[in-house]
Specification:
membrane; 2 domains; 12 strands; Rossmann fold; 14 helices; transmembrane
């Protein structure tokens, strides 16, 4: 084969491969405009990551016998949400024999169990309502270490309540923004109405996609008359909104989906019109802070993100922090002016990252940008434990571990 023939063959196959890749990309873009495919891409609910393992046997995920109670919470539209109640380790130790004597597995009536009574009857009980990210179930990935980190600050009193949204794990139905918010509200209302835990003893925690649900819950209750404000809201690896997320998202931090189309504003804008679930967390977080300020309600908000997050860039947290701060200032503040104030006021912790707190007469908005922690690993870090305890202690200074 001559050199010209060789070059021609290489070019031919090269162009064919490029054409095939372009065709596949066009098909992907077309599919993204359909509701069903878009739902699977946004929520990843079909990817359970706990296949061939029984969620009704939490012990196989590293828990002690009956440290976790699997049960169901009913949402307003009659959806049944699969949930776990996780006991803090020191409280479990004190009641180990009685808890271990109970039957294991799924519990049709959680109110009959000792774990529920320990949650309900102790006036010093604190509860973290956990809202997980896209994909998986209550037991997937780094979520189990996350539960331990959430209660580690006070292992005798901080319980964790986590659940699978509709369409996830063993919760039936199809996920949507409206549906997931209804689910998060149903779980929160169950904690307050059935268990009887007041909002002042509850921290709302969300990670990744769960941060959008967490903000929606805090926003919903802050807008009630009279308003209800929780001990705090903790967001780990949040995103500004779905349109912004898809414009920056890269699979495994390398393969972009829609970001190449930003060079073509008309086409990019056209495709964004097909996004069904917008999840406008930036708007909700501004409104939530503003309502708390107007109502003169004490509030606390912590935003945590790792710089090496491949899935959602930490810039999303910086933007959300700005939107939250804007809600606390009647005249607002530009992003550039806030960055200037950060340069003056933020605490540099070296390899541990930076901390910036914005304080008003009524609230504290805290941004923690870590140097490392990726997207999920950070959930088990002490920074999460500290954030939860900081909120509980601020809401009630007497809540601390006695020396």
């Amino acid at each position: 084969m001559s050199l010209n023939d060789f070059v021609g063959t290489v070019l031919k196959y090269g162009f064919t491969s490029l054409a095939a890749a372009a065709g596949l990309y066009a098909v992907l873009l077309g599919l993204l405009t359909t509701a069903t495919f878009q739902s699977h891409v946004v929520y990843l609910h079909a990817i359970q990551m706990t296949w061939f393992r029984d969620l009704d046997v939490p012990e196989t995920f590293g828990f002690l016998k009956n440290q976790v109670t699997p049960f169901v919470i009913k949402a307003a539209d009659d959806q049944h949400l699969y949930a776990w109640h996780v006991l803090p380790i020191e409280l479990y130790r004190k009641h180990e024999l009685a808890l271990a004597a109970e039957q294991t597995g799924f519990v049709p009536d959680i109110t009959s169990r000792l774990a529920f009574k320990l949650l309900r009857d102790d006036p010093e009980t604190r509860l973290v309502i956990h809202m997980h990210g896209a994909g998986g179930t209550v037991a997937s990935g780094h979520r189990v270490p996350n539960y331990r980190a959430l209660s580690a600050g006070h292992p005798g009193r901080i319980h964790v309540l986590t659940f699978d949204y509709r369409g996830f794990g063993r919760s039936k139905g199809k996920p949507s923004e409206v549906g997931l918010i209804e689910d998060a509200l149903a779980v929160t209302e169950w904690a307050m109405d059935v268990v009887g835990i007041p909002a002042s003893r509850i921290v709302i925690f969300g990670q990744s996609m769960g941060t959008a649900a967490a903000v929606a819950v805090s926003h919903h209750f802050a807008s009630q008359s009279p308003p209800t404000v929780f001990a705090g809201t903790v967001l780990v690896a949040p995103f500004v909104n779905v349109p912004t997320l898809v414009s920056t998202y890269r699979v495994a931090g390398t393969l972009p989906i829609l970001s190449p189309l930003r060079r073509f504003p008309a086409l990019f804008g056209y495709l964004l019109r097909f996004i069904r679930d917008q999840w406008l967390t930036n708007e909700r977080i501004t409104q939530m802070v503003r309502m708390n300020e107007v109502n003169e309600e004490k509030y606390r908000l912590t935003i945590i993100h790792a710089e090496d997050d491949w899935d959602i860039p930490s810039h999303h947290s910086e933007l959300l922090f700005w939107h939250a701060v804007n809600g606390s200032i009647p005249v607002g503040i530009t992003y550039e002016d806030l960055e200037y104030k950060k340069a003056e006021s933020q605490v540099n912790l070296g390899a541990a990252g930076t901390i910036m707190e914005w304080r008003t007469d009524y609230g504290v908005i805290r941004e923690e940008i870590l140097k490392s922690g990726l997207h999920d690993v950070v959930m088990g870090y002490p920074v999460v434990t500290m954030a939860v305890m900081r909120h509980f202690e601020a809401a009630d200074p007497s809540f601390t571990i006695e020396p």
